[in-house]
Amino acid sequence: MSLTRERARSRDLELELRCPPEIGAIEGDERRIKQALFNLISNSIKFTPPGGAISVEAVRQKDALLLTVADTGAGIPHADRARVYEKFERGVRQTGTGLGLSLVKSLIELHGGNVVIASASGPGTRITCRLPVAEGAAAIAGTGTAQEPLAQFVQALA
After folding, report:
1. What is the mean pLDDT of residues 86-110?
2. Which three-class secondary structure state does DSSP give residue 53?
3. Can you give the pLDDT at residue 98?
4. What is the 8-class DSSP label of residue 84?
5. Which of 34, 38, 111, 145 is most solvent-facing, going by the fewest CB within 10 Å?
6. Which whole number is the average pLDDT over 105-126?
7. 52, 15 in Cβ contact below 8 A?
8. Nearest to 132 by CA among 67, 35, 47
9. Residue 140 gets which letter from DSSP?
């Protein structure tokens, strides 16, 4: 979120983070998970009109970590939901390479997880990345040997 907060502010968007400090930790590639969340937040900023809101939330379940980015933007029609995961696909009003959600899906699936879109062709999109939690997992493994508690990782996005 530190990478996106100023962009959100310049577009008059509220950006909120909800992550309990006791959320725990998971094993995963920190850079790849950060890239997935950055893409989701960037899409929300791009397609949420001024005065809108974006929230980033982390919720720990027994066997999974749920990372959700929700916004009050344009929404994704039901008929387009499967298509937006395809490489080089963009919505009618979209610009860019069209790799955003395809990349998010690939990165999350490489971690054994999945991505779910909850949206309509009206305001609002909610995209949840479900990452499995290995039993006894105590830390996020980055690309090196450094390990960082999950709450710190999510806060670093803020």
Report:
1. 67
2. strand
3. 45
4. G
5. 145
6. 87
7. no
8. 67
9. E
For tokens 């508690």, name the residue: 149
Q: Which residue carries 């720990």 as its tokens? A: 60
Q: Nearest Cα to 80, choosing from 96, 68, 94? A: 94
R_g (Cα) of the chain, nearest Å: 15
Q: pTM value?
A: 0.77
Query: In whole angstroms, how far apart are CA 3 and each of 9, 83, 141?
Result: 12, 28, 21
Give residue 37's pLDDT. Answer: 94
* Phi-psi domain of 117 (left: phi exceeds 0; alpha: psi -120 through 50; beta: other): beta
Rounded to whole angstroms, the Cα distance separating 4 from 15 reads: 9
Asked if residue 152 lies in contact with residue 19, where contact means CB atoms within 8 angstroms, the answer is no
